[in-house]
């Protein structure tokens, strides 16, 4: 948004996105240009206030969710320790699988037991 001097006059233009391009749109000169500039400034301030409000809400929700996230991490860690002690392993950092046990009967043959 800017005031531009063209010829002998000063005019207010605003930038508007049309599809992927940004084009200048004539808003007026003199009183109409000042009204257009004030309107655009109010819209900018409203958008800034809305962004600030949304940021504050995200921070508030993050603070409320933090204890639940911590409990979730501790529960995962406790379950992982319990499963590892029970003989399970994580396959490719994914699902838990029971570890296979290899037995050797002494004759060179290896049996697998699940």
**How many discrete structural domains?**
1
Structural class by SSE content: alpha+beta
Largest sheet: 3 strands, antiparallel
Average pLDDT rating: 87
Write the element-wise H/E pattern from the N-terminal end onward: EEEHEEEE
Measured by DSSP, the beta-strand proportion falls in 25-35%
Alpha-carbon Rg, integer? 33 Å
| Shape call | elongated
Number of strands: 7
- Runs with pLDDT <50, length 5+? none
Strand order of the largest sheet: 1-2-3
**N- to C-terminal separation?**
72 Å
Number of helices in the DSSP assignment: 1
**Helix amount, in percent?**
40-55%
Question: Please, could you describe this protein's structure?
Answer:
The protein has 114 residues and is an alpha+beta fold. Helices cover 49% and strands 33% of the residues. It is built from 1 helix and 7 strands. It has one helix at residues 30-85; strands at 2-6, 9-18, 21-29, 88-90, 96-98, 101-104, 110-113.
Element layout with pairings:
Blueprint: E1 2-6, E2 9-18, E3 21-29, H1 30-85, E4 88-90, E5 96-98, E6 101-104, E7 110-113
Antiparallel strand pairs: 1-2, 2-3, 4-5, 6-7
């Amino acid at each position: 948004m800017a005031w531009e001097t063209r010829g002998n006059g000063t005019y207010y233009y605003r930038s508007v996105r049309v599809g992927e391009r940004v084009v200048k749109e004539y808003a007026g000169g003199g009183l109409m240009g000042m009204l257009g500039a004030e309107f655009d400034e109010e819209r900018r301030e409203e958008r800034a206030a809305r962004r600030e409000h949304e940021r504050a809400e995200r921070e508030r929700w993050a603070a409320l969710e933090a204890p639940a996230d911590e409990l979730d991490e501790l529960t995962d860690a406790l379950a992982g320790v319990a499963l590892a002690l029970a003989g399970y392993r994580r396959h490719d950092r994914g699902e838990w699988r029971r570890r296979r046990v290899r037995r050797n009967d002494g004759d060179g043959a290896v049996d697998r037991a699940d």
